[in-house]
Write a structure and sequence with these properties.
about 15% helix; Glucose Permease (Domain IIA); Nuclear Transport Factor 2, Chain: A; eight-stranded antiparallel beta sheet
């Protein structure tokens, strides 16, 4: 039997939908009270903390105490549209705990202690991973079909990199087995896509992810032939990745925060190359990213190249660039601890792990592994099409 990633061993338990947002007791500011005690609010334009707290039934004195407790981490007078606020209070109007989330991974919390004080902390929230089976009936683009099914358009880009035919518009049935990472039931991002199937009338195309005995991995069709390589190329020739995507301790700020891209180690002045054909949308100084180039590509994909020492000649918004064309040079501008390239990929404004799109072509499958691969395929097919539950007699 093929050795599968641990997620695939949890077949029955892992194929689940998103969990309710309420986490277990004792985690993240003590959120674990009965849902009736929790008040949640999504910040809209014009919101002020005092009004939010008043609407939640809390007096002005509690709002002032909360603002003082949170001051080292967050200025509550500067709420941003889309921020999430969760809180719980007692029947007599005392705040039990309060949590502010600017994004899914970063939370500032305050909770009441036994000494009747509000104490604030800041830290990342726990992301939980589960396998999901997704099936859509495509009538236009795959992105439209996935969004209509409640998924994120980033998933369409991942699938199209694995199976380029899914980029074609038209009628098709597409079925996937994919890792979902969620924070309290809200989708954070996707992990590995383990299997893809596309049906158009009687024609069926499938791709499966496989890790060989030697550690090499990639996507193969049912016969074991490697799938076509992805369309993105590395933005720095020959460079190695020095920091991955996800929560990490920032090398300068020394606190854990979301790293929304990947870093490539390279000497100052090394050419930075366009990862794909596109159009320049930004070539300017962008705060902590320093000198940054942004390129727009087909399918709602955008790539960012940060900490550049200089831009290539005539890099300006509106200019078309070819894959592999020099767009700038490695540097250490902005908030940076040394020369490197910070590379981000976004789909319709939402970040995703660039490493998922930069994977090398799958190596040829050794003849000695063909039997193991076919067993692996059978197990993935069982996830694509799980057996229906037995009927009651």
């Amino acid at each position: 039997m093929a050795v599968l990633p641990f997620q695939l061993a949890l077949v029955a338990a892992a194929l689940v939908g998103p969990a309710p947002w309420l986490p277990e007791a004792g985690t993240d500011c003590g959120v674990g009270h009965a849902p009736g005690n929790v008040i949640s609010h999504r910040v809209v334009e014009g919101d002020r903390l005092a009004a939010v707290m008043r609407d939640a039934g809390l007096p002005a004195e509690e709002t002032a105490r909360l603002a003082r407790a949170m001051r080292p981490y967050l200025k509550l007078s500067n709420l941003s549209i889309g921020d999430r606020i969760d809180l719980a209070r007692t029947e007599d109007g005392r705040l039990l705990w309060f949590r502010h989330r600017h994004d899914l991974m970063d939370a500032v919390c305050a909770r009441r202690t036994l000494r009747d004080q509000l104490v604030a902390t800041r830290g990342p929230l726990e992301a939980k991973t589960a396998l999901a089976r997704v099936q859509v009936q495509q009538d236009g683009t795959l992105s439209e079909a996935l969004v209509a099914a409640g998924e994120d358009p980033r998933l369409a880009v991942m699938v199209q990199e694995i199976m380029p035919s899914t980029a074609e518009a038209g009628k098709a049935q597409v079925t996937l087995v994919v890792e979902r990472r969620a924070v309290e039931g809200e989708l954070l991002d996707y992990g590995r896509v383990f299997a893809v199937e596309r049906k158009v009338d009687d024609a069926v195309e499938r791709a499966f992810h496989y890790v060989g005995r030697g550690g090499g991995s990639g996507y193969y069709d049912e016969t074991g032939a490697p799938m076509r390589s992805t369309r993105l190329r590395s933005p720095v020739s020959g460079a190695h990745m020095t920091s991955g995507y996800g929560v990490r301790k920032h090398p300068i700020k020394r606190r854990r925060r979301m790293h929304k891209g990947i870093d490539f180690g390279a000497d100052r002045g090394t050419p930075v190359l366009a990862a794909a054909d596109g159009v320049v949308t930004t070539a300017a100084w962008k705060g902590q990213l320093g000198r940054m180039v942004a390129l727009a590509h087909e399918g709602g994909l955008t790539t960012h190249y940060g900490h550049l020492s200089a831009f290539a000649l005539n890099m300006r918004p509106g200019r078309k660039v070819r894959q592999g064309q020099t767009i700038g040079y490695v540097g250490s501008t902005g908030l940076s601890s040394g020369a490197h390239l910070h590379f981000e990929t976004l789909v319709k404004g939402r970040h995703m792990d660039p490493a998922q799109l930069l994977a090398a072509p799958a190596p040829a499958l050794p003849e000695a592994e063909e039997a193991a691969y076919q067993e692996h395929v059978r197990e993935l097919l069982a996830l694509l099409y799980p057996a229906p539950p037995p009927q009651d007699a």
